[in-house]
Design brief:
14-stranded antiparallel beta barrel; mainly beta
């Protein structure tokens, strides 16, 4: 099943590509390796808590490809490993500790015509999200997205986008809006679908930001009886980040903040809910090695 971070990132990036074709948008990297940990989120309806450790690797597969005038295509690869660790849950709790994985190949396309204020973006992805116990058709998803933006001037662009997820299963539609505002040479603010970024560049070597984005996910698993189910985790991260240039295009970023709106569900592959548990606010920390886009 398509994971939530990828789905909202799809909305974000569809909007991002629509509102600004400049890869200098904060958070847009040619390659990135990230480790993060979400601390204990207490379960609302009983004893126990959930903590999550993640490793993410993301990279473009080539420099931008221009098959036609005004058209640019950018292919991506992404891998994520997520370890769900439940503590002190009752014996009958239907979800246990899980080691989950996702791999996906995606491509973004941007169309811009010289002299036109309009920008158009498209996106397609194939993803495997699984526990690797027994890989079947429920572990794969195929998704599409797109967006359009209007550049009012060199500093402000407004856009909108949408994605259609899981075309081969429990299909879902997510619309999103976005803007990109270069306040001045040091401050940039943007809303890219559900992702909000306010960034301040102290100088050419330091970047500080406030950021809100998704921290959830959906993965297909097999239970002890061999039945296919999906773990659906919803979470939103609000954090502060500091980035330091190491050398050239390589940056080290560290961040911390809170996870809000947390819940976890067990569903059938067709989306029917089997179980849902809300969770309290938790804390998270993150560190990443990034290579900024060209």
């Amino acid at each position: 099943m398509s994971k939530i971070p990828a789905s909202v990132a799809a909305v974000s990036l569809s909007c991002l590509l629509s509102v600004s074709a400049q890869p200098a948008v904060p958070g847009f990297d040619a390659a990135r390796a990230t480790f993060s940990h979400d601390g204990e989120m207490d379960l609302d309806d009983g004893p126990g808590s959930l903590s999550i450790s993640r490793f993410e690797l993301r990279s473009v597969l080539s420099k931008p490809i221009s098959p036609a005038d005004g058209l640019t295509i950018l292919p991506f690869f992404e891998y994520e490993a997520a370890a769900l660790d439940f503590n002190d849950t009752p014996a009958a709790f239907p979800i246990g500790d899980e080691d989950l994985h996702s791999l996906n190949l995606s491509a973004f396309a941007v169309s811009m015509r010289e002299g036109s204020p309009w920008i158009y973006g498209g996106w397609a992805r194939a993803e495997l999200a699984t526990d690797f116990q027994d890989i079947g058709e429920d572990d794969f998803t195929f998704d599409l997205g797109g967006g359009a933006g209007y550049r009012f001037n060199e500093k402000f662009t407004l856009g909108f986008g949408a994605v259609v997820l899981n075309l081969n299963g429990d299909t879902k539609f997510y619309p999103g809006i976005g803007f990109d505002w270069m306040v001045n040479d040091q401050v940039r603010v943007g809303l890219y679908g559900p992702t909000f970024i306010a960034a301040y560049s102290l100088d050419e070597n330091w970047l500080f930001s406030l950021r809100g984005d998704s921290g959830g996910g959906i993965w297909n698993i097999d239970d002890e009886g061999g039945q296919s189910h999906s773990i659906d985790l919803s979470s939103y991260r609000l954090g502060v980040y500091a980035s330091r240039r190491l050398s050239g295009n390589f940056w080290l970023t560290a961040g911390a903040g809170a996870t809000v709106g947390n819940d976890i569900r067990l569903t059938e592959p067709d989306g029917d809910r089997l179980f849902k548990q809300d969770m309290d606010t938790g804390l998270f920390g993150q560190i990443a090695l990034r290579m900024k886009a060209w």
